[in-house]
Write a structure and sequence with these properties.
Layout (H helix, E strand, L loop, with lengths): L11 H7 L17 H14 L13 H13 L2 H16 L8 E10 L8 E3 L4 E11 L4 E8 L4 H13 L7 E4 L6 H10 L2 E4 L15 H11 L13 H26 L2
Parallel strand pairs: 1-5, 5-6
Antiparallel strand pairs: 1-3, 2-3, 3-4
Length: about 270
C-alpha cells in the first residue's frame, strides 16, 4: 500500500531530473533493496521539518538506513557534485554560460546546540556557534560552502571558501563582498586566485533601507536556505555534515526550478 505523500516529497518530474545523478549500487555487493527515492524523500523531510534522524516517520525507510546513505554521499562529496550539475543545467536553461565569471561572498553566523562538535564565539554578532561561508553566482545559486567556527574573522574564513572555489571555477574573474572583507584580503585574492575582489559599501548619505546591488543576491540565497528548519541552527556534530545539509537544500531548490522550466517549455 502506497503511503500518503508529504509536502517535501519529490514529484515524478523532479525525480526524473535527480535520479540519474544518484550513485548506483556497488558492483559485486548485495542488491539494493531499499527504495532510493524514499531515502531521498526522508532526507528532504528531515531537512525541511528540522526533526532528528530517529524521529523520521515510520513510513520512510529506517533512520539508520537513511543516515547510512547520507553519510556515504557526504563522505564521497555526492551532494556537492549533484549541486554542481544542477547549477550548470539551471544556468544553461536560463540562457547563461555553464560557468560563472562573477560571484558574491558572504557569511552567516548560526547558533549550535548541545551536540558535540567545534564551535566558537562571534563577538560582532554575539553568537556562539558556527559560520556558514557561501559563494554564490549572480543568480544566487550556490557555488561552494565552508562551515567553520564563528570565532574566525570573515576575512580569514573567506580564504577558506575562496581557496576551495579556486579548484573548481576557472572562469571566475570578479568577487563582490561587503565592507567586512575590506583590507588585506583584496590583495590576497588578487595574488592567490587572480580574481578581483570588489567591496560594495553602504552609502552613509542615504537614509533608511536601500538595496546594495549585487549584495542582495547572496542575502536572498540565505533567505532561501532559511526555509529549511534543519538550517535554523547548526545541529550537526561535524562541519562536513553542516555543509552537506546546505548543498541538499540547494539541490531541492534547483530541482524544483528546473521542473518548472521544463513544464513551461512548448
Amino acid at each position: 500500500m502506497k503511503r500518503k505523500p508529504y509536502p517535501t516529497d519529490l514529484s515524478n518530474a523532479e525525480w526524473q531530473i535527480l535520479e540519474p545523478m544518484i550513485p548506483p549500487p556497488k558492483r559485486g555487493g548485495r542488491p539494493r533493496k531499499v527504495d532510493i527515492l524514499e531515502v531521498v524523500n526522508a532526507m528532504l523531510y528531515l531537512l525541511r521539518t528540522g526533526c532528528s534522524w530517529e524521529m523520521l516517520p515510520h513510513d520512510f525507510p529506517p533512520p539508520d538506513t537513511v543516515y547510512y546513505y547520507f553519510k556515504q554521499w557526504r563522505d564521497h562529496e555526492v551532494f556537492e557534485k549533484i549541486n554542481s550539475r544542477l547549477r550548470e543545467q539551471l544556468r544553461v536553461a536560463s540562457g547563461r554560460e555553464k560557468e560563472p565569471t562573477a560571484a558574491i561572498l558572504d557569511s552567516q553566523s548560526v547558533k549550535t546546540t548541545e551536540t558535540r562538535g567545534e564551535r566558537g564565539y562571534d563577538a560582532g554578532k554575539k553568537i556562539k556557534g558556527r559560520k556558514r561561508h557561501i559563494l554564490v553566482d549572480t543568480m544566487g545559486l550556490l557555488l561552494t560552502v565552508v562551515v567553520h567556527v564563528a570565532s574566525i574573522q570573515d576575512r580569514d574564513g573567506a580564504k577558506k571558501v575562496l581557496q576551495k572555489a579556486k579548484q573548481s571555477f576557472t572562469c571566475l574573474k570578479l568577487i563582490w563582498a561587503d565592507g567586512g572583507y575590506a583590507g588585506k584580503l583584496i590583495a590576497w585574492v588578487k595574488e592567490s586566485c587572480q580574481w578581483l575582489l570588489e567591496i560594495i559599501k553602504r552609502n552613509d548619505n542615504v537614509k533608511g533601507f536601500h538595496v546594495l546591488p549585487p549584495r542582495w543576491v547572496v542575502e536572498r540565497t540565505f533567505a532561501w536556505l532559511g526555509r529549511y528548519r534543519r538550517l535554523s541552527k547548526d545541529f550537526e556534530e561535524k562541519t562536513e555534515t553542516s555543509e552537506s545539509m546546505v548543498y541538499l537544500a540547494m539541490i531541492h531548490i534547483m530541482t524544483q526550478r528546473l521542473t518548472k522550466i521544463q513544464a513551461a517549455e512548448p
